[in-house]
Amino acid sequence: MLRYLVLVTGLASVAYGFPAFNTPNSVDVDGNTCPVMDRSGLMCPVLCVRDFSSCPDLIQPSECPAGEQLCDDGACYDNCDDVENPCLCGMPASDFDATYKACPSYSTSVTVKQYDPSTKQEQIEFACAQTWGLVSNNATFGSDTSVALWATNETRTMWGECPVADEPQLSFTETFCLAFYGIIGAEVLLYLLWHVYKSIRERHAAQMRRICSQLPKTQVSPSVANNKQYEKDVVQSGPSSIDIPMIGESALSASQLPAGSMLLRGYKNDISGIFMYYLTLLSTAAWIGLLMIIVLDYYGKVKGGVAYGLLANSNDSMSVFIFVWHLAAIWLIAMLACKRRLRNYFRIECSLPQARVVQVEERQEEVIMTEGSQNRLTQLVTKAYNAVVLKFGLNIVAESCATQHIGANQFIEYRCTRYVFIEKAGSFECHAFVLGETHRALLDCHGGLTSAEAEARLTRVGENFIRVYVPSFPVGLLQELFSYTYLYQMMCLFVWFYFNYFKLALVQLCVILISAFIKVFIRLRSERRVKMLAERRNQCRVRRNGVWVDLDTADLVPGDVVAVEANMEVMCDGCILRGEAVVDESSLTGEAMPVRKLPLKNEAIAYDPQNSASKAYSVYAGTRVLQCTGSSYGSAPTSLDTMVPVDSAEPQTQILVLRTRTATDKGKLIQRILFPIQYSFVLDEQLRVSILALLAYGGVGFGLSIWLMGADRTSWFYGLFVVSQALPPLLPAALVIGQSVAADRLRRQQIFCIDLPRINLCGKVRLMLFDKTGTLTHSGMQFYSVQEIADTTFGNAEQNIEKLSDQIQIGLASCHAATEIDQQLIGNPVDVEQFQATGWRIENSREDAHSLDTLVAPDHRTVHVVKRFEFEHARQSMSVAVQDAATGHVHVFVKGSFERIKKMARVDSVPADYDAVTAAWAKQGCYVLALAHRNLGEMDLGSVSRMPRAQLESGCSLVSLLLFRNTLKEDTPQAIAELRGGDTRSVMVTGDTALTAAYIARECGMVDTASRVVLGTIEDDAVVWRDTATDAVVDDINAEIRAVSAQGSQVPQVELAVTEAAFDWLIKSGQIRHLLLHIRIFARMTPQGKITCVNLHMERAVTAMCGDGGNDTGALRAAHVGIALSEAEASIVSPFSSANPSVMSCVTLLREGRAGLATTLAAYKFLVNYAVVMALLLEITQFYFSVIVPEAVWIMVDGFTTSIMLLSITQARTAKKLAPSRPTGQLIGAHTLASIWGQAAINIAFLYGSIGLLFAQAWFRCNEFDSSDIDTSLWWLLGDNYEAEVISIVCLFQFINAAGVYNFGYRYRRAWATNYLLVLMYSAFLAVVSAIALADPNRFGCVFRINCGNTQTVRDLGYSASTVHISEYNNPLGHNVMPRHFRWTLWAMCVVNIVVCLAYEKLVVLGPVGRRVKAWWVAKHGDSKIQFKL
Questions:
Q1: Which residues fall within 8 angstroms of residue 1140, CB to CB, at 6 or more apart?
Q2: Spatial distance between the Cα atoms of 244 and 246, rounded to a whole number of angstroms
Q3: What is the pLDDT of residues 1230-1281, one digit of tens each?
Q4: Are 587 and 1130 in contact (CB under 8 A)?
Q5: Residues in a beta bridge with 890
Q6: β-strand partners of 194
Q7: Whether the Cβ atoms of residue 577 and residue 1111 lie closer than 8 Å to each other
Q8: CB neighbours (10 Å) of residue 339?
Q9: What is the pTM of this model?
């Protein structure tokens, strides 16, 4: 079998190539027939004589020194016993009719006149005979030389040219061949038998599969709701487990799963399967080992130190290598494709209760985040790609989870979450415990859990500890290398090693391994950081069985009650049952300001930890408690076993554990980091097209190589060289190196990135959305004044608090949520500023059990805070009930947005000009709040504390407006101006009022001072548009926009603003998408409204969101690019975070993103240029002439120039300002293709022009390289000629210059010369190549075998000979030294080539020519890019 398969891989034992369209040395430059050339540097064979006296005078043996004797090989030795006589050719002397001795070797070469390759050996012998005087000088070739050919029956003087032994042949029946047949046949049989056996055992397997939902489904039963602890066990499995139909066409597969569901398949081990699995692993290693054996046999390292000792000869060895190489490649590709499912294929599928391993399968959805990439070609390739993915299930992620047991409970751990087998459902299910939906229900859980309850819950949800597996470095390296990229590189290296290309193969192997080591080191370092973030545990005090015990936080379960102390890291999500705490949440939200946490209220208030209203009562895993009520209390160690109370004192601050492990916000974050969503950018979409194009290009090159190099085995190797050059192994790395460099630069500027692929997306941002407070403006508010309202009439604005009425002073001092910790006020910045303006102080001591806080005025008046409802975004208000200690009266104060308080207050207390006055303050940039009041008189404080919010806040009267100033950050106007100059539209999305936002927008330059701002609000259940300056109604906003657009700059521009109510109305009416890009300000937006706004903008263009990480966290995560201005080093609320709160961070991010994207494209174009130059120009051109550029040239290009210049390109510095455009992100766009193929056309023209110039030289014609008598498989002998020399010099210049061409930064990177590393390496490489091309024969040039030759030949040419040892030149001339004038002419052509390439890129692709062409195209065909006002 193997014999016939091998025969199809080649037909000839020796490969010869010949130019297809011209005959070497046929005619000279004048068209005359070339004379037959002389060939020098040929060595004479051994001359065999009957007696040494018969040796010619020139090779007479010299007299031996004393003690030595002359032996039969013509040399002197101490003893001749072991000396081999070359004339016997390894045969016994008895086989000869006469005794022969060898004359001493002739050390000087001879010259053959009119050399004819077809009679090479005979001509050499004739020339040697003439030189030695055995033939007269007048004799002609072909006449009798009186020297016979070698023969055993010869008696005359004869040549010692031993007959060529018959080449051993591989019969393919050798022992190792039979063993190979047997092993392959046995494996095939075993695999067939296993498949049949597995199919029989699994004939009912499809019925045993189950699906499981990843989304929780909450159901509340009345019995559970009435339970004391209001506990329910929520099964996270969607509907009941579903029976899967019988296996066959109707069987459910993972590709048919509903979104958010997983397919569970159980497997158990089988002794036969275990054997087959390890046989598969052994076979994988065997294929690689077999290739290594064939390579080693080529070098004679396998059998007897003889080349081809195992595989007989070069022809059979090449055939076997090609055959095995293809089989090994197919096998290894199959192993890579099946690596996640391979182990389970050799198990038996069974029911889930019997399973030792559960295979979890789910669809991996890809999020497309591209702009303008869907051209027809990309759509076609993407469609085909998606079809292949769906056909073969490549979008299905399969992970095997070992089943574990705790008692009778069986469970698996999948993505850090525990799934427990539920016998009734027949499936594994994820559990979550909901302890209550109201404050009162949660407070009922204050008693904690019993040990039995805790153990049962721990079994269901798992320990409160997320384990992150970080492999060792060797394992990580193995994981890195076991990928398609490295497989491709490895298979190329095998070819290079086999084809005596080992020097470059070793260099490439070192580059690949170093690159892999670096990548693994960086990856493992990142994973260790995640491990440190995830694997957190500590000791805490927990109430179990009614007593306080010390427990490991890993043992916490929902329902536990935990004592809180200062400086304690919270390890779970929970709510505060009693006491208060000040928590640092910067690691989660990015908000540097500590947050005050309050205890739950004993009322039926809805509790949802994801709702902003409930966050004031919630604590989150990963945050740190800075201070709490009763932070220090006694602590005596105890154990859970003894249940001895640690201390009789009840901890003053306690939290109820609600969620643990991956159910917490931090746990979900860890899951997102460990198992990220796959994003597809424009580069990813078009990379598929690019790779297919390069493969097709390589395929054409492969075919041309086969044709040009003789259609034999050798040409297969040359063709594969072309493919490896056409698809550079470094190409995938080129697409990420730019973003890695950009990330490092951002980090140095205090901007941190946790999602590297988004950096390239920053380069395409067109819409930048900003939060206002804390982002565009300073985070703090400055108290401005208070405007009282008395008898529905506004008074004057008063800045002196002491001049206000006692009632308002009490309201200002009490209606807030600020608290004092260590003599520092903590809370919302507005609340803190408000309280500080009053001059009051907070007393820590409480005079009454019903009192939350005691407040003391400068004049020692005292009030007690009895009840407080914290601020809710949905209600846009907060309220307090306080008791005046002097009168005993209870006063209710409600504070909130002026619109909300107007709706809540009594109608008869609202001034008629209320809207006008508040609007006027807002237009002046004031942050306007309103305060309402109600006097309840003397009341029982217990009754007040039980009063629901709606009842407490009803019937209040407006008493004042509270005015704050929110000043712009100093550099905000500069940042907005630079974004506008960078073709980026800025939009404000804020929770503040529309008029205040409009004022800030004008101040920062987002809205021109001359522009009209038209505000859309809801009036009578419809949006009404009013001019904010005149309050005039705009009847038709669309007509207004069209009219302004038609008149252009002749009239003031119109900027739209909307409130969230109007925004929602526009969404429902379907008008929002039409007006979206005309709306500059989105006001009064809730956190969810901000997310919706961001999502709508993302439909139109690449969108960035900038905020402070507070209530805009969801919007930051939703945007294409989110940047949180947070003092935390690496805020997890968004892909980017800046420790510098300046809005200029956004400008920096966009600048670095554009530079990173431009660098990525430059690196990509550089490597594609490498593919074009190496595969088309160099490889195919040299194959046409049957020459190969010298080995040192290959090593220089592939080993050093590629990697060094690629690295140098990435060091281009970022532009100082944003350009008015963005770099292209398309690998196959017109701009990219014009650059690549324009450069290719120029280089082709100059290369072929240089070859044409060479063929026009008289000294070259008739001295062309003729490979007709050369074995082209000996490629290292094919570079000693003028053709290879010229190709080498020109292509080296072109290849080095490509880095210079793509170093042009255009508008996104700085000037060419500021990339100092590239300038240095570019200049150095050009200088080296120039020296090689121009210099006379010298040591360095001879290393590259350029302008060099045999020592004597070089001397004969009049040059000083190089002392560097080089092998003899493989051409008749014995050198390839070009005349000086031609060297300079060729060098000048290369310089012109460089200049033309640089000018084309600078002036045509990036310069005015390219811009004019683009403008013409846009004018003729239109611009597909969405246009909008900046």
A1: 749, 750, 751, 1125
A2: 7
A3: 888 888 889 989 999 999 999 999 999 989 988 888 776 665 556 667 788 8
A4: no
A5: 883, 937
A6: none
A7: no
A8: 12
A9: 0.78
